[in-house]
Amino acid sequence: MQRRDLLSHLSLGCLSSFAHLPARATQPPALWLANPYQGHEKLTDYWVSEKYDGIRGYWDGHQLLSRSGKALNPPTWFVQGWPAHAFEGELWAGPGQFEQAASVIQQKQAPDNAWRAMRFMVFDVFTPSITFTERVRRYQGLVKHIDKPWVQAVAQSQVPTHAALKALLHTTVQAGGEGLVLHRGSSLYQSGRNADVLKVKPQEDAEAKVVGHEVGQGKHAQRTGALWVETPQGLRFKLGTGLNDAQRENPPAVGQWVTYRYRGLTDKGVPRFASFVRIRPAIER
After folding, report:
1. 3-state SS, residue 142
2. Domains (ranges, CATH) in the chain?
3. CA 32 centroid distance within chain
4. pLDDT tens digits, residue range 121-152?
5. Distance separating alpha carbons of residues 93 and 181, to the nearest angstrom
6. Contact 75, 116 (CB under 8 A)
7. Which residues of 128-140 are buried (b: 16+ CB within 10 A; e: fewer)?
8. What pTM value is reported for the model?
9. Fewest CB atoms within 10 A around its CB: which of 1, 163, 218, 285?
């Protein structure tokens, strides 16, 4: 499917208007979070981009932070020349390389060659007073100003119909992408979840904390059959599908957070067909 890039008419913005932040973060940055796409939205109101399967990073003008506010440890050369203005993106190691990206980022001093395989995919700037359409122009200008091959601007386009969006999702996932992000062009920067930012994936996903282990039966006897997990809302359920043999022998520990996929909810709010995906990196909590 052809994607119409509607940004060609936008000139590069002046970097001097980016918001300056305090010298050091004292709490998690107030970032926007995406809600699930419902299928009834007016798509012409939204920009569409690929959802990169990496670790979200936030440059506060002085240091690179995780979305939970923890300081990351990139080499000096990786952030050299970055401006004293806030912007954010995804630390990404390529399609299907989430575990590699998480491993690099969680090390206090990962080797240079590991960081040279990373990309910082910039998708927004912290300039609360202007719309997302204007912020796209700003972050494109910022990336051009930094002028480093590992700092890249996330491409934005628009699709006219939900069928076209579905086709683009299929193409993106087939190429190894995680999904898509919809961002309302007229929206101002707003922290938390809202209808201005939506995620589109083949299946929904969420996080839960491991609160126990259930011993398996049959071929899984004497090892973990399922995890008992608890959502941030306090709902508990079992998560057994998706665990491989190594994870059943050495399961995620009680207290760790995991990501799971599911297909809708039951009448009681329990995720249907929930399947374990991975342990959530500690740097994100």
Report:
1. helix
2. 15-200 (3.30.470.30), 204-284 (2.40.50.140)
3. 11
4. 999 999 999 999 999 999 999 999 999 999 99
5. 19
6. no
7. eeeebbbbbbbbb
8. 0.75
9. 218
